[in-house]
């Protein structure tokens, strides 16, 4: 008898991809000059692509290598961390083109989307939102559940960003609110709904020596390219400020993270979990203000405060979330993305309220277009009004993220999405549930040719001989 269950994920993924192909055929086209043989060669496109592609490629590396390898710290979940990260990002960028197009074009009147180079970095940004949420539920969900989460989250995240930018004119050049805050709290809301008390008995929710090495690869790639993440969408003076502010914030954050690691440990030692994650919090914390005249010393302060918030969160906050609120945050996205993003948003509101053309010159109107006089195409908002709208954007982002995350979590719990593939605590954080592992080839076979049903338990027994005295990585 055919086991149709094993085809469910594959068929669903193929149907989704077929849907994308049909929608692209109907709606997506090159920009007029790119695909029109009658149009003259436009040298401006070449120079524009030359300017846009380097930061896009940097962000591309962050999405597919940085995020993926950062999540390989789990001793038995490296395949899923990198592999499903690869899959979800590829789904997200295609879906994001379609969703973003619906917000910009009148498709039912015959408009087609223009596929242009400057949109590519925005697609990777959209994927980052999903991958942050993925970190909160890593090891406790099935690939089919994650596919569902991706399709829903891309839609609501893009709608949230549309509202905040169009109606609040909220500036967020590094998208700390629209990506990091949204992704973190959406993921935490999903994790709360999916909470399984058996996670306390999961023996594989921990790193080993070599898995932490792989995770640090992700950290270093993210750290190196974060200035492009915050500044890639900016231009001219704003881009220069974004690069400088982000770099300085990351450097200060790294120093303070190492210092606090030693202070918090009773033996004055460093903990790899903190180093892998909290050193990156400075990039998140300066995201909203990266293109603003924050000043170099201000960037150093932001990075230092971000490190304090993040390391303290890993030291005390993760256990509180798990024990008291029943939110199991596998990768600590609340500490790396959530709280530093709140800091970024508040700093952006404060700078908006304190800024003016007298202090910033025309940069103030360029960053906050609605503060320009009505005669110049703005709405004449005061600096205090702009600061208020920045905070309104944060509040709306949190509200939409948490509310839709809860709804998505309940949808993911439906039996049709294969939650029952994770049968017990031994199936959590275990690659062999979804992947063919090399160890399986050497395990004893039953007479019927079927591999031993306890294969991954046997592998775990062998694995435990190499696992040190690590605490659970929350």
UniProtKB/TrEMBL annotation:
GO MF term list: ammonium channel activity
Keywords, sorted A to Z: Membrane, Transmembrane, Transmembrane helix
SUPFAM superfamilies named among the record's database cross-references: Ammonium transporter
Pfam family, any one: Ammonium_transp
Domain annotation Ammonium transporter AmtB-like: ranges: 20-427
Localisation: Membrane
Transmembrane segments: 7-28, 77-99, 120-139, 177-195, 207-226, 246-264, 297-316, 336-354, 391-412
InterPro entries according to UniProt: Ammonium/urea_transptr (IPR029020), NH4_transpt_AmtB-like_dom (IPR024041), RhesusRHD (IPR002229)
Primary site of residence: membrane
GO cellular component terms given for this protein: plasma membrane
Topology in the lipid bilayer: Multi-pass membrane protein
GO terms classed as biological process: ammonium homeostasis
Family to which this protein belongs: Belongs to the ammonium transporter (TC 2.A.49) family. Rh subfamily.
Name of the protein: Ammonium transporter AmtB-like domain-containing protein
């Amino acid at each position: 008898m055919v086991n149709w269950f094993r085809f469910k994920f594959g068929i669903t993924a193929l149907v989704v991809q077929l849907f994308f192909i049909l929608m692209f055929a109907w709606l997506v086209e090159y920009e007029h000059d790119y695909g029109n043989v009658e149009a003259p060669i436009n040298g401006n496109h070449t120079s524009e692509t030359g300017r846009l592609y380097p930061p896009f490629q940097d962000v591309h590396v962050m999405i597919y290598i940085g995020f993926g390898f950062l999540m390989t710290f789990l001793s038995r979940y490296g395949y899923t961390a990198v592999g499903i990260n690869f899959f979800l990002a590829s789904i997200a960028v295609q879906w994001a083109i379609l969703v973003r197009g619906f917000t910009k074009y009148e498709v039912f009147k015959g408009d087609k989307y223009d596929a242009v180079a400057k949109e590519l970095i925005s697609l990777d940004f959209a994927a980052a939102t999903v991958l942050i949420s993925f970190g909160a539920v890593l090891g406790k969900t099935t690939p089919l559940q994650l596919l569902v989460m991706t399709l829903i989250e891309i839609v609501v995240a893009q709608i949230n960003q549309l509202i905040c930018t169009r109606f609040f004119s909220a500036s967020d050049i590094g998208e700390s609110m629209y990506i990091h805050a949204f992704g973190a709290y959406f993921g935490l809301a999903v994790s709360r709904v999916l909470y399984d008390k058996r996670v306390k008995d999961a023996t594989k929710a921990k790193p080993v020596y070599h898995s932490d090495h792989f995770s640090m690869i992700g950290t270093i790639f993210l750290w190196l390219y974060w200035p492009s993440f915050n500044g890639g969408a900016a231009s001219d003076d704003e881009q220069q400020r974004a690069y400088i502010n982000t770099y300085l914030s990351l450097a200060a954050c790294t120093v303070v993270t190492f210092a606090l690691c030693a202070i918090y440990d009773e033996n004055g030692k460093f903990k790899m979990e903190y180093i892998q994650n909290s050193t990156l919090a400075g990039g998140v914390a300066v995201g909203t203000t990266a293109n603003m005249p924050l000043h170099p010393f201000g960037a150093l302060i932001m990075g230092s405060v971000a490190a304090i918030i993040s390391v303290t969160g890993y030291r005390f906050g993760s256990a509180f979330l798990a024990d008291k609120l029943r939110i199991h945050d596998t990768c600590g996205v609340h500490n790396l993305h959530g709280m530093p993003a709140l800091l970024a948003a508040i700093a952006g509101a404060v700078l908006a309220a304190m800024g003016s053309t007298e202090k910033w010159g025309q940069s103030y109107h360029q960053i906050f277009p609605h503060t320009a006089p009505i005669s110049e195409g703005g709405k004449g908002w005061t600096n205090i009004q702009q600061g208020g709208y920045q905070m309104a954007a944060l509040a709306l982002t949190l509200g939409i993220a948490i509310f839709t995350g809860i709804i998505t979590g309940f949808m993911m719990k439906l039996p049709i999405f294969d939650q029952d593939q994770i049968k017990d605590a031994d199936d959590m954080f275990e690659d062999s549930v979804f992947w063919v592992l090399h160890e399986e080839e050497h395990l004893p076979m039953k007479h019927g040719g079927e591999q031993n049903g306890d294969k991954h338990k046997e592998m775990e027994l062998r694995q435990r001989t190499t696992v040190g005295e690590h605490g659970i990585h929350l």
